[in-house]
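Quick one - first record:
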Amino acid sequence: MALHSLPGKLERDAPVCQVNCINEEVIKRLKPRVDKMEGVATVFKALADDTRVKIIYALSEAELCVCDVAALIGSSKATASYHLRLLHYLGLVKYRKEGKLVYYRLVDPSIGDLVRQVINLTRQGTNGG
C-alpha cells in the first residue's frame, strides 16, 4: 500500500481509547528517553530516498570513490556528490582524499546494519512474513 493512500484508511481503522487512562509510572520512565529522540527523524528522512539508501548499502560493503558511487547508482558524479555531501552533512559518512580521488565510507557500520535489517523486513513482508 502506498504511503499517500494511508491517511483516509488510518482515520477509519485506527482504534482509539474510549476513556483517558495514563500510566504515570511508564510515562515517567519513558519520557526522558523519548525526549532524546530529537534529530533522529532527520536520519530517517535522509534514508527516505532510494538513491541514498543504495549509497548507504554500498558503503556498508566497501569504501567507494565518488566515481564508483555514480556508476553504482547510474548517475553523474555531480548527482552522486550531492547525495554524498548530504549524507556527510548529516554525519552518516566521512571521506578521505587520495590525490584527485575522494573516497567515502560510513561513519558507523551500524547504519549499514540498519539498512540491511529494513531490507530483510521488507523481503519478509513481500514473502508473506
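second record:
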Amino acid sequence: MKRQHAYPDSVREYVSVLVRLSELEATHSREQLTESDAYAALEERLEDVRPAATEAIDRLSDADAEFLRSYVADLERDSRLV
C-alpha cells in the first residue's frame, strides 16, 4: 500500500482496523477475542467506517479501487471471526 497516504481517511481507517483485527486474531484464541471488550470495540468501529470507506473506494481510480477491494476481501476472508 505504497500510496495509502493518498487514500481518503475513511479508507485508511477501515484498512487499519481490518489489519489490527487480523493481527489480534493471529495472536489470540477465539475465546480470548470473544471475551475482549477491545476486540468488540474494533469490530464495532469496522462496521461504523465500512460504509464511508466503501463509498470512497468506489470514487477512486479503477486500479486503486480494484487493488483495495482485493486487499480488503483477502483480509476479511482470512479473518476467523468476521
